[in-house]
């Protein structure tokens, strides 16, 4: 049951534009917000080579905007690349920043926009996860359907010095506008489509298991689960299917909106651990972690999981609530395997590493931060069990 008496704060962009070919009128939408000056587009080499950055530049020029393109973004960004983007934006005299690409490019853009208005470097602020004030305007234009970062107040940034994943968590980096155009995701390769889809699914389901979930976030998250179950396999194996891309774009955006307040829980804690130690791509880490995180929360999220089973297309008629919840766990695992994702971290690490990983899961402040949103306390014993099960690919018997 959601906390009936809790004061809830909902953070969403001031403006959200969603639609096929909407990016071709981006200049118009920016003008309507009263934003002017030079745009700095933060993207990555793949998006630039695909011609998507040029498409945005031309759309901006149509409405009189100058634009400069920083195309050196990289996956799982660190503070160094964020500083590079910020320095580029400063030298170009940028007035606002457009994050164009997957979650990594948009996360870099969020930081670069702040540093247009603030002195110093990324690490100066990353240690505290926040900035003292709002920076330059941020426009988020995703080319993947996964992180939902276009609608969140989070940015995941790795500390280059030790490889540990940190993050910003502040309304100051919430995009002023999210422009979601499903045509931009059509060129996404199948593996990227699958892994980003797993991230979106994790956001939606983990939000519903979080301690601070509420009726609005539940409704949005549940619809996102339904869309992902319907559309992810189609988008992976039939990439030019625009209807599937539209559903995945909606699902990613809605899941991002949903977790802004309730947060995300043990699945992301495990995914960030694997990402920090083995450099497992974030979406892949989410795929590995999600079924086991769901089972871990079975005892106090049973009714939620039973509802998720229905959204996943499971026929739960005649099942008990527990049976339906268990069906949800198995359905998620099957869906992830159907799109070619691993559901064990055995390909990436060694079983002998479990004590070290468990220590990280209960001691690193960048991992334990997720438990502030969790309903269950995380003990070392539970971390070992969760890691062991997710290494072995084992579901079904009693969990701590």
Question: What do these coordinates show?
Answer:
The protein has 400 residues and is α/β, with parallel strands linked by helices. It folds into 2 domains: 7-184, 3-Layer(aba) Sandwich (Rossmann fold), CATH 3.40.50; 190-392, Up-down Bundle (Dehydroquinate synthase-like, alpha domain), CATH 1.20.1090. The protein is built from 16 helices and 8 strands. It has helices at residues 26-32, 45-49, 52-62, 79-91, 103-117, 122-126, 190-209, 215-237, 242-259, 266-278, 282-296, 298-311, 321-338, 354-363, 365-368, 380-392; strands spanning 15-18, 39-42, 67-70, 96-101, 138-142, 154-158, 165-169, 177-180. The chain has a 6-stranded parallel sheet, sandwiched between helices. Strands 6-7 form a two-stranded antiparallel ribbon. It is globular.
């Amino acid at each position: 049951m959601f906390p009936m008496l809790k004061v809830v704060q909902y953070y969403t962009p001031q403006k959200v534009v969603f639609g096929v070919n909407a990016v071709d009128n981006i200049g118009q939408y920016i003008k309507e917000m009263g934003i002017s000056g030079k745009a700095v587009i933060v993207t990555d080499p793949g998006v630039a080579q695909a011609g998507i950055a040029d498409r945005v530049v031309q759309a901006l020029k149509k409405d009189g905007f100058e634009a400069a393109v920083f195309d050196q973004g990289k996956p799982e960004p660190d503070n160094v690349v964020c500083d590079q983007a910020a320095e580029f934006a400063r030298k170009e005299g940028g007035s606002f920043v457009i994050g164009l690409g997957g979650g990594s490019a948009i996360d870099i853009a969020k930081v670069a926009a702040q540093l247009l208005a603030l002195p110093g470097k990324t690490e100066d602020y990353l240690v505290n996860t926040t900035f003292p004030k709002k920076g330059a305007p941020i426009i988020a234009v995703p080319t993947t359907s996964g992180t939902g970062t276009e609608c969140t107040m989070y940015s995941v940034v790795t500390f280059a010095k030790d490889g540990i994943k940190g993050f910003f968590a502040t309304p100051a980096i919430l995009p002023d506008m999210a422009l979601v155009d499903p045509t931009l995701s059509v060129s996404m390769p199948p593996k990227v489509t699958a892994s980003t889809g797993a991230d979106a699914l994790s956001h939606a389901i983990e939000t519903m298991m979080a301690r601070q979930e509420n009726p609005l976030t539940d409704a949005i998250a549940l619809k996102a689960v339904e869309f992902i179950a319907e559309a992810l396999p189609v988008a992976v194996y039939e990439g030019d299917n625009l209807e599937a891309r539209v559903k995945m774009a909606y699902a990613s955006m809605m899941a991002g909106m949903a977790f802004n307040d309730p947060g995300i829980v043990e699945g992301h804690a495990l995914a960030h651990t694997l990402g920090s130690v083995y450099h497992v791509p974030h979406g892949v880490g989410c795929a590995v972690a999600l079924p086991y995180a769901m089972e871990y929360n079975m005892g106090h999220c049973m009714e939620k999981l039973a509802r998720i089973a229905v959204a996943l297309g499971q026929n739960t008629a005649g099942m008990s609530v527990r049976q339906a919840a268990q069906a949800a766990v198995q359905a998620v695992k099957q869906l992830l395997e159907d799109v070619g994702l691993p559901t064990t971290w055995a390909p990436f690490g060694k079983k002998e590493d479990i004590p070290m990983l468990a220590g990280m899961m209960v001691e690193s402040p960048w991992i334990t931060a997720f438990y502030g949103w969790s309903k269950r306390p995380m003990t070392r014993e539970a971390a070992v069990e969760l890691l062991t099960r997710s290494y072995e690919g084992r579901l079904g018997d009693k969990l701590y």
